[in-house]
Amino acid sequence: MLIPTDITELDNEYVAQALIDNTGDCDVLQEWSDQFDLPYPANTGWDAEAVRLWAENLGTAVEGLETFEDAFAGEFNSPEDWAVQYLEETGAMYEIPANLRYYFDHSAYARDAELGGDMCFIRSGGSTYAFYNH
Questions:
Q1: Which domains, ranges and CATH numbers included, belong to the chain?
Q2: What are the CB-based long-range contacts (under 8 Å, 24+) for 41-50?
Q3: Which stretches in the chain have pLDDT values below 50?
């Protein structure tokens, strides 16, 4: 299939949304993915719900596909659960003396990360999807 040379922004958005929704013939979607230089979520192992939510949050399917891989931090039960995992993975909790760690407010840390613009938490279906904003 040939893609016309006068592709508009709307064409890009249409193709990106079709890739996110995974609607249509898989071979055609893969060809569109290749020709529009956009990832095809069904072939990446990405969480389909997370991709959809991220694109809706950004307001553009193209930007959602282009930034998803770097932005997605995971699916959690709550923003607080994200904070616990993040602080353990980065080792930041171990910089706090052991006798004070129990007083650390993970919920406030997650809230501040979101308010400060570092994180975006999107709640859907009982899950919290965490995304880095940088």
A1: 9-70 (no CATH), 73-132 (1.10.10.1190)
A2: 41/65, 41/68, 44/69, 46/72, 47/72, 47/75, 47/129, 48/20, 48/22, 49/124, 49/125, 49/127, 49/129, 50/75, 50/129
A3: 1-2, 4
